[in-house]
Specification:
This protein has helices spanning about 5-30, 60-75, 85-90, 95-100, 105-110, 150, 285-290, 365-370, 395-400; strands at about 130-135, 140-145, 155-165, 170-175, 190-195, 200-205, 225, 240-245, 260-265, 300, 320-325, 325-330, 335, 350-355, 375-380, 380-385. By secondary structure, it is of the alpha+beta class. This is Tubby-like F-box protein.
């Protein structure tokens, strides 16, 4: 039976079982008014019973269930049809556990399925192709999965959304999963990008700690007042990368020069046989923070814990990305890069990033020439973004957002 039919039948069964169980509960309450119901974490009450309903889909044979989910995973390879894979994980706990085992990471499959896929490295061979739409009126930027709006149309999958907030001394880009919720206390908050006063240096903060404890750097030390954010939802930010643009003091012509230091990705990930940190689930950093940080009585603000000493952890060399040097085209009289047809409009924002390795590091020449991230303009307020291993969609999107901030000293 097709998955859509399974889901429809499941919905009908839930509705019918819910109605019948409701009638049974009402009859039991009328006949046994003297008895009490046990409700987890609440006092016993006759007025609000919370029964535990088990769908028959939870008792599906594991061998048959594994075969069904594997078939769905193999057949639905693009959005929006890939929603069927997500629907399998939404049936019940047993279905969700098996679906998580079957679904592979973007590095292994080249597909983005769950929200955690946005924090996992991309594929090694072929890049994941996306595009960014800028909305000037609302200062928002939306990342879609697809070649371009003209080719994807309504089938484009929204991955991430960012909102630019200008402050007196800096600019921030708040990154969220949905386009209408940019609260740092929300579960949709993934991280942010913050610039300095000149717009030449940027820091990328992640709401999740780095997967490898050796790569963890300091948390954001910005004070958060209890009046603004509830103590139960205090956001925690971890600095995972830094982007720096070179100052153009002589005002020479040419593209911007940038350098990205990925603190959460070791340089060993691009070496022969290396692997990049790959998180498998979102951690509840808020509860961890409150359990490890006691609140002082009378304090009105919370400052996040300081940086751990360098001696307490091994020093791991981070991955550094740099601009791929363009060449000057005599006939066109402009700087050119081979974007393989993905960029069609000349702009100072266009760039390609490659790994910058030292001579003592085991990074091959071919790996140093491989484009890890490319970003370029294809129309008014439309830009393409293609990324691959070891960057994730979140990291690539944050780096591209730095190109939208005003940089008069770099042009």
């Amino acid at each position: 039976m097709p998955l859509r039919g399974i889901i429809c039948e499941k919905t009908e069964i839930r509705e019918s079982s819910g109605n019948s169980s409701r009638k049974v509960r009402e009859g039991v309450q009328m006949r046994h008014l003297g008895k009490s119901h046990i409700v987890p974490e609440q006092p016993s009450s006759l007025s609000s019973p919370v029964p535990v309903e088990q769908s028959r889909w939870a008792n599906f044979p594991p061998e048959l269930l594994l075969d069904v989910i594997q078939r769905v995973e193999a057949s639905e390879t693009s959005w929006p049809s890939r929603r069927d894979v997500v629907a399998c994980a939404s049936v019940c706990r047993s279905w969700r556990m098996i679906t998580k085992e079957v679904v592979r990471t973007p590095e292994q499959s080249g597909w983005i399925t769950f929200p955690i896929s946005l924090k996992q490295p991309g594929p090694r061979d072929t890049p994941i192709q996306c595009f960014i739409k800028r909305e000037r009126a609302t200062s928002t930027f939306r990342l879609y999965l697809g070649l371009s709006p003209a080719l994807s149309g309504n089938l484009s999958k929204l991955l991430l959304t960012a909102k630019r907030i200008r402050r007196a001394m800096s600019t921030e880009f708040i990154i969220s999963l949905i386009p209408d919720d940019f609260s740092r206390a929300s579960n949709n908050y993934l991280g942010k990008l913050r610039s300095n006063f000149l717009g030449t240096k940027f820091s990328i903060y992640d709401s999740q700690p780095p997967h490898d404890p050796k790569l963890r750097t300091s948390r954001s030390k910005r004070r958060i007042h209890l009046k603004q954010v509830s103590p139960s939802r205090t956001p925690t930010n971890y600095k995972v990368a830094a982007v720096a643009y070179e100052l153009n003091v002589l005002r020479t012509r040419g593209p911007r020069r940038m350098r990205c230091t990925m603190h959460s990705i070791p340089i060993a990930s691009v070496e022969e046989g290396g692997t990049a940190p790959t998180p498998t689930e979102f951690k509840d950093c808020i509860n961890e923070y409150h359990s490890s940080t006691p609140l002082s009585k009378g304090k009105k603000a919370i400052t996040e814990s300081p940086t751990e000493s360098p001696d307490s952890q091994e020093s791991v060399a981070p991955l550094i990305l740099k601009n791929k040097a363009p060449r000057w085209h005599e006939q066109l009289q402009c700087w050119c890069l081979n974007f393989k047809g993905r960029v069609t409009v000349a702009s100072v924002k266009n760039f390609q990033l490659v790994a910058a390795a030292e001579t003592n590091q085991n990074v091959s020449a071919a790996e140093q020439e491989r484009v890890i991230l490319q970003f370029g303009k294809i129309g008014k307020d439309i830009f393409t973004m293609d990324y691959r291993y070891p960057l994730s969609a979140f990291q690539a999107f944050a780096i591209c957002l730095s190109s939208f901030d005003t940089k008069p000293a770099c042009e």
